[in-house]
Design goal:
Length: about 180
């Protein structure tokens, strides 16, 4: 009996994967956003299309896939884009379909978790710190020396120059200027 693959693509991608599933004899179901209904999907490779709205509550999405699961055996759930990994994990857990669950999917999208796993596996990566504890941050910044060419930036992130790294409110970044950038008076 062929596998039924429930694919999720909230962005227009994954054509080759969909075609390969079809080539291997799988039944292919595709969940995508309503706004992509008329996109140039490889319709010859997809057995059925399902649509969601970007603002659709998770509970409604779970109800929708449960409705599909009542009439069709879903063997695998596949995210075709990294933005859909967490949704696919939630649906896998809800339907008890094999594959990566929600806890693992959160680590998949969390850069700090990725670096932590790489470091624990012995893979070299730049020094980093979890920006939660003030003492840990102070220790890290006292060890880090960077040159002007090593400075990275983020668009729209503003730094605060204070001895305490605890921001006055949520989502305000604290950053330490590199010694090479300090102005002398």
């Amino acid at each position: 009996m062929p596998l039924t693959i429930f694919c999720i693509a909230t962005y227009r991608k994954g054509d080759e994967f969909l075609r390969e599933c079809r080539r291997q004899g799988c039944r292919v179901l595709l969940l995508t956003e309503e706004r992509l209904r008329d996109s140039d999907w490889p319709r010859e490779a997809v057995d059925e299309f399902y649509y969601l709205r970007r603002d659709m509550p998770a509970e409604d999405i779970r109800k929708g896939i449960a409705s599909v699961g009542r009439t069709q055996q879903i063997d695998r759930i596949v995210a075709l884009d990294d933005f859909d990994v967490e949704l696919a994990a939630m649906l896998r857990e809800y339907l008890r379909v094999p594959g990566m669950g929600e806890t693992t999917s959160h680590a998949f999208r969390d850069k700090l978790a990725m670096r932590g796993r790489a470091r624990s596996a012995g893979i070299r990566c730049p020094d980093f710190v979890h920006v939660l504890n003030n003492d840990t941050i102070r220790d890290w910044t006292s060890r880090i020396r960077c040159t002007r060419g090593e400075i990275a930036s983020s668009v729209g992130v503003r730094g605060r120059q204070r001895k305490s790294f605890a921001p006055p409110g949520p989502f305000i970044a604290a950053k330490r200027r590199c010694p090479a950038r300090r102005r002398t008076r």
